[in-house]
C-alpha cells in the first residue's frame, strides 16, 4: 500500500510513499530505517482524530 507500484495507495501522497519506500528499500542491504513508518503513522493518527 505504500509502494509507488501499489494499486491501492490508501490516499497517501506520492511524496510520502516515496519516502517510505526509500526508507524500507535502502541501498547497500542495510535494511529498513527504524523510523520508516513514523511519518505515515502520524498522518493516520491525525486523520483518525478529526
Describe what this molecule looks like in 3D.
- One of its GO terms (biological process) is intracellular protein localization.
- One of its GO terms (cellular component) is plasma membrane.
- This protein is mainly α and 50 residues long.
- The chain has one domain.
- It contains 2 helices and no strands.
- The longest helix has 11 residues.
- The radius of gyration is 12 Å and the shape is flat.
- The mean pLDDT is 83.
Number of strands: 0
Subunit organisation of the chains: single chain
Distance between the ends: 22 Å
Order of helices and strands: HH
**Helicity level, as a percent range?**
40-55%
What is the number of domains? 1
Q: Which blocks of ≥5 consecutive residues have pLDDT under 50?
A: none
Given the C-alpha coordinates, what overall shape results?
Answer: flat
Mean pLDDT rating: 83
Tell me what portion of residues adopts beta-strand conformation: under 5%
Annotation field: number of helices: 2
> Rg from C-alpha positions?
12 Å
Question: Biggest β-sheet: count, sense, barrel?
Answer: none
Q: Pairing-aware structural class of the strands and helices?
A: mainly alpha
Amino acid at each position: 500500500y505504500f509502494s509507488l507500484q501499489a494499486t491501492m495507495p490508501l490516499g497517501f501522497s506520492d511524496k510520502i510513499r516515496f519516502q517510505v519506500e526509500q526508507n524500507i528499500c535502502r541501498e547497500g542491504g542495510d535494511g529498513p530505517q527504524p523510523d520508516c513508518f513514523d511519518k505515515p503513522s502520524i498522518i493516520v493518527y491525525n486523520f483518525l482524530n478529526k
